Amino acid sequence: MKKSKVVRKIFSLAVTSSLLFSLVTGVTGAGVPKAMAASTEATRFLQLYDQLKDPASGYFSPEGIPYHSVETLMSEAPDYGHMTTSEAYSYWMWLEALYGYYTDDWSKLEEAWDNMETYIIPVNEGDGKEEQPTMSYYNPNSPATYAAEYNQPDKYPSQLSGQYAAGKDPLDAELKATYGNNQTYLMHWLLDVDNWYGYGNLLNPNHTATYVNTFQRGEQESVWEAVPHPSQDDKSFGKAGEGFMSLFTKESNAPAAQWRYTNATDADARAIQAMYWAKEFGYDNEEYLEKAAKMGDYLRYGMYDKYFQQIGSAADGTPAAGTGKDAAHYLLAWYTAWGGGLGSSGSGNWAWRIGASHAHQGYQNVVAAYALSDDDDALVPESPTAATDWSTSLKRMLEFYTWLQSDEGAIAGGATNSYDGAYKAYPSGTSTFYGMAYDDAPVYHDPPSNNWFGMQAWPVERIAELYYILASNGDTSSENFQMAKQIMENWIDWSMDYAFADSRPVTDSEGYYLDEQGNRVLGGNDPEIATVSAPGEFWIPSNLEWQGQPDSWNGFGNFDGNSNLHVVTKNPGQDAGVLGSYIKALTFFAAGTKAENGSYTSLGSEASQLAKDLLDAAWGYNDGVGITTTEPRGDYYRYFTKEIYFPAGWTGTFGQGNTIPGNNTVPSDPAKGGNGVYASYTDVRPDIKNDTSWSYLENKYNTSWNPATQQWENGAPEFTYHRFWSQVDMATAYAEYDRLINGGGGGPVEPTAPKAPTNLKATAGDAEVVLTWSKSSGADDYTVKRAEVSGGPYTEIATVTENAYTDDSVTNDTTYYYVVSASNEVGVSPDSAEVSATPTEAPTPVDGDLIVQYRTNDTNPTDNQIRAQFRVVNNGDEAISLSDVKLRYYYTIDGDKAQEFHCDYAAIGSGNVSGAFVKVNPAVAGADYYIEISFGAGAGTLAPGADSGEIQVRINKSDWTNYSESDDFSYDATKTSYTDWEKVPAYQNGTLVWGLEP
To answer: Has this prediction a pTM greater than 0.90?
Structure first.
């Protein structure tokens, strides 16, 4: 049972008060405290941080992954609240960067990056699982086969025609040379965190979180029309022999089993942006900064046309294949994607890669581009052309925004290098940008992609950051600065006309703002919006309407505004996440005016005051779990309508066990170009009916929705959502206001002596003790000290630069005590906590004909599951019946609770593998429990020289509390490939025949 909101809120306040006291008194560590007094905004940031990290709030999964939303009944970009996105991960980085700023505790940032690398960057992160198994077969001279995009899902699958030969990929060779392989270090955009769809993680079955995808069928396919499918498709689901691929693309033969991932470029750029600010705040762990730089290296694929066609070459309908960087538009496109085969031997040895032809203004990130191109920055990628590419991209993005800024100040949609998704000739009079065609709603049309105000606040906030960065660095004359400043002044002036704190704007029934005379405000500069007093409320725009197009781009020096491009601002709303981003835009702009001029300009002062007023109003909406408002969801009638297209004759299996499209379908609309049927959300995803909120929605639909009028006649259903990204946007808005406006320790910190190393561990061996500890931020080296009496005096025995040391100058059966300190040019840290170890002579293991090989992908020793993989090998001359064999894995339970055993996979059949928990009494070093693994008769026999194949097991406590595996007898995180391992003993008919016991 969850704590009540009141209890959670009191707990949060208590924790935050303690932390703030530490900040005020400077007792958090050796560093200089960042503030001598905590402002209201700093207090609220830390309170929101506590709410987000409180397990009772429900923002994180058992694997530590941030959910898209605490609530589950939701359909927007993710169609279920307990999905997650790369966007959520990138916001998590931002949250922890600012937490590190206030506390000097950077471990949380590193833990977040580690989790991201484990679960949503599909690489082998050291767990032995190849999640891009055939990428090495990729041919950069033939990246992918062309298939057209269409304006309706009904026109799919699209023929893989190869009508336009793909150009050459100019990045692959240098990425291979730089990193030793070409496995893409980017996030896949969508995870089924709890495996709600039911597909399972094929390439990493020890993970519950599963790579999935939805949108595949053109600009009109909304979340209501998409078919969720696995990103690792071995054809176990979907249509027999075809999987899900035949819904999207058509070829002469049955589609091959394959893996495929899609990256949302804005999310990875935001993660890099967060690491830039962490570095500016004093974070200096090169290991993680280099990972962010590597992500930026691969993110350059977002700069390329989908099929590597030359930019602008298709204006007349005849695209030309690119030969290198002539296929780069240097913007961040909507996505990149890559994939390959899952078949055996030669049939699966292939891979492909695409960029994207459509660039949306909402995805550009000038801060990431700045960080990745600054020669003095630790985030410059290692590839030889990366810094130049990002420098070009930075200017190109600023030009892009200048080109797209309407006469009023809002930013219009974007541009495409593939008109209508098929490289069609541009209509006469189409405005262009470096040869690309203007598109008022790039990528998706249901609803139009540039109508949401969030697509204004997100990217322009980043331009405000760049304006502040450049002004703070004294760069106030460059063309980049002039563009950033002009964009910001125009946008801030426009947006503040439609944003209100403590008052409510007056609108008509269709959401148009009204002036004092009751007339609709349909654009124009400096409109006077009618308002009514509403203390404690905040209101910002929700939607925009667009008219006209920009002038064709001919350079900043020739730009004189867009008198033919206009915006109508509509629908005041209370989107907390967008509010947070908007407040940060106001805040950075205000701080930028002061950095440039020495004091706030008039517009900067107004922006600062509005940011403060909005922050104060927003706090009144904090319900103890986060800042949120009640949302009417008028679109939720679409849960019940038949909209999901399936071609005639296509039938298959969904992961939840149901047949799709099922029998409850309606014929498709021939006018949309297809021949098939439509199914509903619930036909495809029947488990949504088990959601605790479903009965409310269904009753509301039955009693309020009128299909004839298409209206909710008794009110639309209302939901309160706690979206993770929204809460982080609000939390960081408080932090940035405190940092930039209140002067809460603002700017990079002065170097300080490092803090004492933490998590010191000592593992005793035979005539040796292995020491490991966590890195201390800012440390140049570490001094290891030893004593033979607890508490010292200690003798210095080594100085090392890494966070590990093996002491081999010890005598067995003697207890040694260790501490470690860290140092840099400023000074030396206090000693770490003391640990002890007693080396002993290793017993001689039994070495017989039966051998147990072990590996693990569980390189995090403090998570809530123990994962191990085994192979049993028969090196003897006679067959062995596996039913006569038992294995024992010894460990410490770290809090005695009921436990659960799982066999996630076994080549001999997971149903033939069972486990029994046995308590070791009395406990011994490294073990107070073991799991005894047995095999049923169906496991068969091992012939001489044969092995059992892989056996993957996993255990957890019933309450999912963590284990601490570092000192477990049978655990070895370094064994990521199969190795003979005597610490997993084997028994045949009850007799020890392999290994040793603790």
So the answer is: no
